[in-house]
Write a structure and sequence with these properties.
By secondary structure, the chain is mainly alpha-helical. It has a single domain, classed as MFS general substrate transporter like domains (Growth Hormone, Chain: A, Up-down Bundle), CATH 1.20.1250.20. It is built from 16 helices and no strands. The chain is globular and about 55 Å long. The relative contact order is 0.17.
Length: 385
């Protein structure tokens, strides 16, 4: 296993994207009022951020193969800090969107190269064990970020949320400065930096794992865009909304810890399938609740707790499986799976909210359809070991 300092650095890099996307969730209804936009428009700030996060990942992997992990990380972190500070001082909706794009472009460096650092130093099995350590740390951000953000915004205004994100980026940059370069010494610097994309795209194993990742992540972000407004409809206060994300994080962390133990006893893909079964059960629970006339916090939250078990088990293993598959292009694969993971979540979350509005039925049907799609991908994994 790598050293603790390495694990903490990668965990902070991996948390870049989630902290910036989750910290202002409790403040979204108030932001919509202050900026003079509709709830649908303020939810699009998540989708815009995710699209920038997705597209930028296509570039960080290949360019880190050419120039090295460390210099590309430092450049990306700088963009992340500048974008966060810009969001903090934005006084209009268009300027906020612009800086969200910049923030997302910078956050992509942490996601892509955090995974690449693991793949550079570990094989597939050890990578899965490292993910099982890192993901509980990363998974704290969806719980702690809304709690911290809710209290910061209620005390100082929503601008304070993004000052917090900028400080987090500055601390991470200091840790990167003391990190050693991990790019393999035999990486070609004469070929095109994008030459590895065709190799990755021709690997069926990469695509099967990636479909699972996209389904779980899309369900997660559909929930993140829907839930603040569902809770607001139930007259849940801004501070309380932040605490409602903690049970989901408990589920993710519990699944992470269990996955780490099961790797000693179960086959890799069997653990992935077990997580997807929980995903399907969460979708079915939402489907049953559609026939209930009365809505409530628990009816929104409890099915998603089942989905969080898949987030904590199948998601991390599928990412590791896709990156460490037979293609041998770890940084390029990391960037491509990140693009597809975040991009699909951004498109689907925005399409669901803009096309169907905000309701428990919309949330439940979306989660169920994505869960069944992930189950189909698991069946393909079983038939193609």
């Amino acid at each position: 296993m790598p050293r603790l300092s390495f694990i903490i650095t990668v965990a902070m890099l991996s948390a870049f994207g989630l902290i910036a996307s989750d910290i202002y969730l409790p403040a979204m209804p108030d932001m919509a009022h202050e900026l003079g936009v509709t709830p649908s428009q303020i939810s699009q700030t998540i989708s815009v951020y995710l699209l920038a996060l997705a597209i930028s990942q296509l570039f960080y992997g290949p360019f880190s193969d050419r120039f090295g992990r460390k210099p590309v990380l430092l450049a990306g972190t700088t963009v992340y800090i500048v974008g966060s500070l810009g969001c903090a001082v934005a006084d209009s909706y268009p300027s906020f969107l612009l800086f969200r794009l910049l923030e997302g472009a910078g956050a992509a460096a942490g996601l892509v190269l955090g995974r690449a650092l693991i793949a550079d130093t570990c094989d597939k099995v050890i990578s899965a064990r490292v993910y099982a350590v890192i993901y509980p740390l990363v998974s704290l951000s969806p719980a702690l970020a809304p709690v911290v953000g809710g209290h910061l915004s209620s005390t100082f205004g929503w601008h304070a949320d993004f000052f917090f994100v900028a400080v987090f980026g500055m601390i991470t940059m200091l840790m990167i400065l003391f990190m050693r370069e991990t790019r393999p010494g035999n990486t070609s610097v004469t070929a095109s930096p994008f030459s590895g994309l065709s190799t990755v795209c021709s690997d069926p194993g990469f695509w099967r794992y990636t479909l699972i990742v996209c389904c779980i992540y899309s369900a997660w972000f559909i929930y993140l865009t829907q839930s603040p407004f569902l809770f607001a409809q139930l007259r849940v206060s801004e501070e309380t909304r932040g605490w409602l994300y903690i049970p989901l994080t408990v589920g993710i962390i519990s699944a992470n810890l269990l996955t780490k133990r099961l790797l000693n006893h179960w086959q890799y893909d069997h653990i992935v399938t077990a997580g997807i079964v929980c995903f399907v059960l969460g979708g079915l629970a939402y489907a049953v609740e559609m026939f209930w006339a009365e809505q409530g916090i628990l009816m929104i939250l409890l099915p998603m707790c089942l989905v969080s078990l898949a987030n904590g088990s199948s998601l991390s293993l599928a990412i590791s499986g896709a990156i460490s598959s037979r293609h041998g292009q770890v940084a390029t694969a990391s960037g491509l799976i990140g693009f597809l993971q975040i991009g699909s979540a951004a498109v689907l979350a925005n399409a669901v909210s803009a096309g169907f509005g905000f309701s428990q039925s919309v949330l439940g049907l979306a989660v169920l359809l994505l869960a069944l799609t992930a189950l189909l991908a698991c069946c393909k994994l079983s038939f193609h070991p």
